[in-house]
Amino acid sequence: MNEILERLKSLNLDIENIFPVKGGDINDSYRVESYKNKYFLKLNTAQNFPQLFEKEAKGLQTISETELFSTPKIIKHGITNNDFQYLLLEWLDRGEPTLDNWEKFGHQVAQLHQITNDNFGWEEDNYIAIIIQPNQYKSTWEEFYAESRILPMVKLLVDKNVLNSKERKAAERLCLDLINIFPKEKPALIHGDLWNGNIFPKMNGEITPIDPAVYYGHREMDIAMADLFGGFDESFFNAYNEINPLQDNFEERKPIAQLFPLLVHAFLYEGYYIKDVQTILKKFYF
Q1: What's this model's pTM, rounded to 2 decimal places?
Q2: How many domains in the chain?
Q3: Is residue 193 flagged as an active site residue?
Q4: Which of 34, 116, 221, 238 would be 186's cystine partner, CB 3.0–4.6 Å?
Q5: What is the pLDDT of residues 258-285, one digit of tens each?
């Protein structure tokens, strides 16, 4: 910590105090205070999760450059002697969103998804939580979702003895059927990890996305995940559909879009989440 504080001093931020804060299960988080400003500092090991904060900063920058959201300003990120990596952000005070804020956020996410690309994927691999997301560009969603999302996570869970060979084969059959499940759409710029822990209501009630795992994917991934763990007001979904309506029968295919984040959570936490994964896969047993 002292070495990181010494590094931060070189930024001329006039740091006076640093306090630990709750910031999730993955990183150590702190409020850093100077005479005039406050900052949010995240720390993690550099060896276990290479470029974790560099990739997070790139994702935040990508979302910021859309000019749709007021994301926290990136102050600095780096590594200290190949030991710890850090990310220093503008501090945001938490507020309570109003109905208008939820509607505005729904409109903003709908506009985000209108930013398109020729292929599905991203310019580099990045992270969802502490798991590497392969992002090699693919021309179709079914190929990308199978090869870069579902099957790699299933392999991790099989190797961990959390899923068995029958469930792996069910996942493979599901992947073969993806072409009949998702409607054809252009690749959309998505947040990639849009659950309630990765949105932040600012003091004025405005909601901004944080901790992105961006890529060009099927936009239903964001909407399905927003609905998976709760915490999103219904007005968000209604407002989204005003700008960028979901295609028919979304509710029927929503569990397939939720499979990937459930696989991620099953890998991280097992328990409850693996039962949800198994429920989805059972429909693809012989």
Answers
A1: 0.94
A2: 2
A3: yes
A4: 116
A5: 999 999 999 998 778 999 999 999 999 9
